[in-house]
Amino acid sequence: MKFAVLDFETTGGQPADSIIQVGLVIIENEQIVDRYSTLVRPEMAIPPFITSLTGIDDAMVAEAPPIEQVIGEMQPYLQDSVLVAHNAGFDYAFLQRALEDSGYFKFSGMVLDTLDMARICFPTVPSLALGNLCETLSIPHERPHQADSDAEATALLWLKCLNRFQELPLLTVQRIASIFRDDPSDFAWFIDQEAARKERSTALDPDASEYFRQFALAVKDWGTEPFERDEAEAKRLLGLSFPDFYEKIKEALKERFAVFEERPAQDQMTEEVASAFEDSSHLLVEAGTGTGKSLGYLLPALYYGIREEKKVIVSTHTINLQEQLRQRDLPLLQDIFPVDFRVALLKGRSHYLCLRKYEQKLTYAEYEHGREDRLMAAQMVTWLTDSERGEDEELHFGRNGLDFWRSVSSDADSCLNRSCPWFKKCFYHRARSDASEADLIITNHSLLFTDIKAEHRILPGFKHLVVDEAHNFEEVAVKHLGTEISWYSYVNAITQLFRDGRSGQLPFVRNRLLHADDVPREKAGAWVEAIDDLQPALLDIRERWDELAGLLYESLAHSGGDATEGPLTKRIPESPKPIGWGTLLDREEELYARLSSVLKTLDKLLLEMKEQEEVMDLQGLVTNMGGSVKELYRHRDAVRFFLKQADSNYVYWMEGAAQQKVKSLQLMAVPVDVSYLLRDAFFSVKDSVILTSATLSVGKTFDYITDQLGLRKSAEENRLRTVMLPSPFQYRKQALMIIPRNFPVMKGIRGEEEFTAALTDSLADVAKAMEGRMLVLFTSYRMLRQVHSVLKERLTPEGIQVLGQGIDSTSRSKLVRLFQGSGTSILLGTSSFWEGVDIPGDALSCLAIVRLPFQPPNHPVVEAKSERIKEAGGNPFMKLSVPQAVIRFKQGFGRLVRTTKDKGVVLVYDTRILETYYGKHFLYSLPGPKIEHMNVHQLVPRIHEWMEGEEEA
Prior knowledge:
- The chain has 953 residues and is an alpha/beta fold.
- The chain has 4 domains: 166 residues, Ribonuclease H-like superfamily/Ribonuclease H (Nucleotidyltransferase, domain 5), CATH 3.30.420; 163 residues, 3-Layer(aba) Sandwich (Rossmann fold), CATH 3.40.50; 154 residues, Up-down Bundle (Four Helix Bundle (Hemerythrin (Met), subunit A)), CATH 1.20.120; 218 residues, Rossmann fold (3-Layer(aba) Sandwich).
- Helix content is 49%, strand content 14%.
- The chain has a 7-stranded parallel beta sheet with strand order 10-11-9-12-17-8-18, with helices on both faces. The chain has a 7-stranded parallel beta sheet with strand order 21-22-20-23-24-19-25, with helices on both faces. A 5-stranded mixed beta sheet has the order 3-2-1-4-5, with helices on both faces.
- Helix 19 packs parallel to helix 20.
- The longest helix is centred in the middle third of the chain and has 39 residues.
- The model has no long low-confidence stretch (mean pLDDT 91).
């Protein structure tokens, strides 16, 4: 087969744009046999952004051949070829237009996309962008965004994909081919050809021993590898006092690392954690960036847990930190710790693949999103040949990938447990089994609270807990101990059961019953009749829910706030109720009654069908239906809880987006105060809870976090210790904070316009001086969009790329990769960018904080908490708003200095930090940067001076 691998550089992506460079690489017999490349003289000027991206300017193409001549020279290469490109739709469209404009017939051969093939062959790559793929797969790519280099890299990628596909187990290749069997695309034809080639070349199948049912699997049966440790010997080795034990660990670290830095703060943290475990006390420890928090709690946790034979749980807020512990810190400890230990990482159940549901999905070809779902299904077949954990974090999700994952992820409601043919290979049960045997369990805050709601049936029993990223603990508790229901989740629960006559669990069961030889005909007929009656009833419930949700959205839209500033939000007060609330209660009553009747019928049907559990196909389908029924029960009860406001300790509100209208509707109900829940669930019943973060204190005290987390009683009983550890970074030498004191104040519409204009001017000047390398943190998405458009216009001609959250991508990790890869970028972010973004080195040298990060005072939760504080005679602004904002401000500040070698500038454009009585709380909470204020026109000279100078603190 002959492949023509094509890449174009163009003046843009619109039909009117022109080709400025061509790269073509010819592959035959899996070898590169020819190449063609040339610049092309376009019919328009090359935009500055394209020049900055490609390095091609007007002068370079002035003497280049026109497109008509280039197409004539390309024609022989394209004849009898299969066209291959990366993101083929783009290059194919330009090729067809160029052929037609030059008087040639359009290309009529097969067209294949390396994006599709790379997804299937390399399902775990973090990004499918050509540059990132080349870096991940060690493919040389010397000049990105030059057509000849891009075409060469794409050709090498294609060869790597072909080779990888043929290396896959025969069963995997056959399974992938079967997924595309009914797909009419060129890609499906090609996969079928490759599968046939694999079958011809595989005489003896070396992978057959790894086959189970329809898949070649890396995962082995769990529970078959017993862990053996001489407990007496372990206790002898851990018989030293902790300080002596820690000194031995440090000696091992010195032997392992050529350069070993003593960290006094880390030493103190390990001693404090060890003491808290020994004394059965709780500990709040603030440890700045670079302290080495992870080893600071992991070492004493393992020492104490193994010695005393007590299980220790470590909980993080983010999956990223979980993975860091698994991939970096724990392997190091396993090398140097004197005793073998077992660690398990346990995530929420939805993070694991359910092999039974996935097998069923492929068997019945349930591809709701067509070819996108087929690609996702195929890449997962490949992934299963390598994955031993079956976690979603391992996979790269394409468009609609999350929808596909949700339909095949593990969940308690549809689990067959020991009756499942996949039970011994089940990823989730393997993780649970590992956790039950482990000395140390790594989990996340969400699962801790899910375990509480599940009456402690998920996590093994424990008395010792470490909470990392503890500044998020209360927020996660509020979310998980409340209820949330959306228009989509309710509709999805219904459509899982019945979408139309052909799709949904009920039609599948009906079809199975019509052709079932192993079910008594009389019973099958009665069940088919019951299903036929249920289908219109479910459509009626869907209509009733749509009507109720529509009325709720109307109420929200009527007084839900400014749609340009993010979601519409409306709190539902206890009294007086919004106009028309009585009508909503009537509609809910009718919906509740109708749904209850349907659920009762479904329960009866499922109970009867379970008598046929020996019929495995039917059992799987019935179990899935049972899960959907339980989900509908939860939705029914959640809607009632929301509308009747069943608990006075909760705050109730609605959210939505003006663009998606009712489809965006969300109903929220969360506890106003979780401090007593946290006290009862953790601090009153656990022997020792360690809470750590870089940002726990406000104004050098822990008063705020102590009250929020329910630790006041522990403090009064002398069971709470607190410690603040200094960062090892020299902030006076590494970070300069500048506040432009003459900056406009945001008051009214005129003031906001002046502020935004001045901000854009200043950011543009600083970005030019810094050659990008800037992260700008906003509190308003509307302002971010306004500034993004102006900055892009001003900075693109300077070769500085402007990236905006929600504009250039909604993925934080993708934006950070683009930012780091460019070298001359300015990244504008809000919300999630204030924390958890780690950009060490020169890629980030300037951080701009646009406004102090106060939460909107009218947000329902803030409002409800403020009312409680007022009722108790307190000042909500100083007791709630300022502490929350200070902690977030500290998190934002922490984005700049990530290593001992980092140096940079923090700009704060909010003069309230200087001019108000509460501003000192922000400055006093920082870890000691050099702070200066000056007129805005002095910023750039001072930044140059700081970045180039060797100032003494």
